[in-house]
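for the record, two folds in this file. i put them one after another cuz i was lazy. first one right below, seq on top, structure tokens after. the second one comes after a little note so u can tell where it starts
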Amino acid sequence: MGKAQKYVLLGDATYPLQDWILKPYQEDENLTQRQLQFNYRLRRAHSVIENAFLRLKARWQILLKCDDCSLELLPTLVLACCILHNVCEAHDNPFNEEWLEGTEPTELPKPCQPAPAAMEDGRAEQVRELMCQYFESCGEG
């Protein structure tokens, strides 16, 4: 859209809107078609992320029992699994669907209450609006 953007994380409605956290528009009857499309695209992206984490945990099942290792080792363990997983995926190493049998999608911890409006960053609405325009310009998909 002609404006360089930095990376953002995807959040749900419980997170505050920040210029580095994209969250959906609040679902109500006043949403425009463009805002509904934005929310749909965000949900689709979120499902891709969940699937990627599910495949990562299925391939490297040590991640299912990380409570067995020390907290100091944990970041290195997760990073190593991510790197090895990406190498396997890049080289078309077959993914065995049976690995998924012992792996259930898990709800990631998130805030219980929606973030107060005071935590929201006014500039973040511009980022969300730019993304909304971008999704609209891409058409369906």
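(here's the note) second protein begins now
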Amino acid sequence: NSRGTASLLKDSISFAEVSASGLFEGHDLLRRGFTSVRNELLPSHPLELTEKNFQLNQDKTNFATLRNIQGIHAPLKLQMEFRAVKQIQRLPFLHSSNMAMDILRGNDECIGFEDILNDPSQSEVMGEPHIMMEHKLGLL
């Protein structure tokens, strides 16, 4: 019966869901902090979603404006440059200023909230370099 076999395959659990990073993985309290069901379901303030997506919305508006003014090549070129800059990163335990991304977005001459209150010496990302690299490479 070919229909029965197809329905069995569709209802089966995939291997990715059973793997270490899948369905049965426990919550890593040291890396992700405490969880709250309420925070996962609803934003705490109506403007929270707008603030989280501010840069994405601003990029979409800039790309639409560029497309209307200069054509399709301008936003495509800028998106390729964004991808190239995002791929170049420091090691996970070293602080990065993302200066190239600021230059592409035009924020290199602006002083913002994160420039003053984002002191790398007070960062919670500081940790054991070997453990952080193993986590990034998926060995842990």
